[in-house]
Structures are given as structure tokens and as C-alpha cells.
Design a protein that fits this description.
With 284 residues, the protein is mainly α. Helix content is 41%, strand content 0%. The longest helix is centred in the middle third of the chain and has 44 residues, at 125-168. The termini are far apart.
């Protein structure tokens, strides 16, 4: 009997017709023996698994690098030692001693610093060169200064010797000049102090006011009395002092011109003592 309901029957002959949406899908036939297995179908919407945190104290396992992620760098430690070469200390010392004006010291340190920077690869070459330049300039300056001082002293000594020669020859102006210049250095020139041997010791600086030749009026100022014969009153005291009157010796010393032979004769009590003292107090 034929089916008149018009409903299609399932089966292989009805493959091209409509399917039942509520029917259970038929599994695909098994592949023949020896054929490769088909790839597994990908799953969508599966959340990635998070790796478990490492236990406290255990080192964390390194994460697998992913493409496009920036590499992680360790933070720089503020206490880390410098990796590059530093500045050479000897070169720095060369510059400092050069600024202080130590001459030969920065020169030597600068040479050593150049060798060290070249050998060790450290910086500071400029400091070493500056020390060498400063040291060399200072050495030259000190040499010039020493030569100038020596030349000046030689010139002074030469001039002093010329004044001595002129003073000894009777130039009282030269004697006074020599006495003044020698007193500036705290020294007493014997030639100038005695006016070239023509006056008592201590006459230096006033030689031009006394006679060139003792016993004459040559070179004396008007009214001055220098030696015996220049003043009658002083001559009388001279004679009394020479005769042994010690009071006259003291009077002669007090009344005569400073630096004169009158003063010297009275001060020595008629050449009886070497130091100036009151003759009346001496037991002569």
C-alpha cells in the first residue's frame, strides 16, 4: 500500500531533502586503516590558565617569553661601583701643586700623570699637562728671580767697595754715603765709621763736617772745632787733661763737638782708658 501522507522518510535515498532539526547527529564514519588522524577541532572561549604563585622562599619559575612583550631589566643600584675608568689622582695632584706654585713638584707629578693615564686608560691627561706647564713656568720665574737678586747684591757689594776706596782716599761724602747704606742693613762699616781712618770711631755719617787731615781746618764747617789747635779753650782743657786733671778731661768731653778728637781725648781721659766714662770716678 502506498503512503499518501506526503511525509518524506529518512534514509539514504532522502539525503538531499530537509533534515530534522531535533534529530541526533550521526557520527562520521571511521577513517580507513592507515589514514592519518584528522586534527582536533580548536576550542573557542577557553580562558588561559594562570600559573600558580611560587611558594614563599622558592625561586619563581621564569615565564615563557611572549612575542611583542618588552624585556624586563634590573633596576640600577645606587650603590653600584662605577664601571668606567676614573680620573688619575697623580694628575689631579699635579694641577693642585702647580696652582700652589711648588715649581718642580707639579712638573714631576705631571710627567708621572701622563704616563699613568696612557698606561691605565684613566682620564686626567689635561690636569697632568696643566701641572707640567705651570711647573715649568714657575721654575723659569724662580731662576730669573734668583739671578736678579744675585745681580743686585753683586751691584750693591761693588758699589760699597767703590765707596770704601773713595772714603779711604779722603772723600768724606763717600764715607757718609757708605755709613748710611751700611746702617740700613744693620752693619757698621769700619772704614765709614772712622771716616777712612781720619776720625774716631762713631764719626760715620758726619765725616764731611770734619777735616780731611786732622790738625787742619780743611773740610770743617765754620766755627767747628775738631782737633787740638782749633779752639783755645778746648786746647787748655786738653793740656790739663793730659797733665792728669781728670775733671778737665770730663769737661773736655762734655764741651767738645761730637765725633771730634777733642771728645775722643776727653772721653778716654787723655788716652788712659778705652771706654767713655767719667774720669773723676776712675782710680788713675
Amino acid at each position: 500500500m502506498s503512503d499518501t501522507s506526503g511525509t518524506p522518510q529518512p534514509g539514504p535515498d532522502n539525503a538531499g531533502g530537509p533534515t530534522d532539526p531535533y534529530a541526533v547527529p550521526t557520527p562520521p564514519p571511521a577513517p580507513p586503516a592507515g589514514a592519518p588522524e584528522p586534527p582536533a577541532a580548536p576550542t573557542y572561549g577557553t580562558a588561559p590558565t594562570t600559573p600558580e604563585a611560587p611558594a614563599y622562599g622558592a625561586p619563581a619559575a621564569p615565564a615563557a617569553p611572549g612575542y611583542g612583550s618588552a624585556p624586563a631589566y634590573a633596576a640600577a643600584s645606587p650603590y653600584a661601583a662605577p664601571t668606567g675608568p676614573g680620573t688619575d689622582g697623580v694628575s689631579i695632584a699635579a694641577l693642585v701643586t702647580g696652582i700652589l706654585g711648588l715649581a718642580i713638584v707639579p712638573l714631576i707629578l705631571g710627567i708621572l700623570g701622563l704616563n699613568r693615564t696612557k698606561k691605565n686608560g684613566t682620564s686626567g691627561r689635561g690636569f697632568a699637562i696643566a701641572g707640567i706647564v705651570l711647573g715649568a713656568l714657575q721654575i723659569v720665574a724662580y731662576i730669573i728671580l734668583i739671578v736678579t737678586v744675585v745681580a743686585g747684591l753683586s751691584a750693591v757689594n761693588s758699589e760699597s767697595q767703590g765707596l770704601r776706596d773713595d772714603c779711604s782716599a779722603g772723600d768724606m761724602t763717600a764715607c757718609d754715603t757708605l755709613a748710611i747704606t751700611s746702617s740700613l742693613t744693620g752693619e757698621v762699616d769700619e772704614v765709614a765709621d772712622t771716616c777712612g781712618g781720619t776720625m774716631p770711631a762713631g764719626s760715620g755719617g758726619s765725616c764731611q763736617f770734619g777735616p780731611v787731615d786732622p790738625g787742619t781746618d780743611e773740610g770743617t764747617t765754620e766755627g767747628s772745632a775738631f782737633t787740638y789747635g782749633d779752639d783755645a779753650t778746648l786746647d787748655a782743657l786738653w793740656d790739663a787733661c793730659e797733665g792728669g786733671d781728670m775733671a778737665s778731661c770730663d769737661d773736655l768731653y762734655m764741651e767738645s763737638e761730637p765725633g771730634s778728637e777733642y771728645e775722643s781725648f776727653g772721653g778716654t781721659c787723655g788716652n788712659r782708658q778705652e771706654t767713655d766714662a767719667y774720669c773723676v770716678d776712675l782710680d788713675l
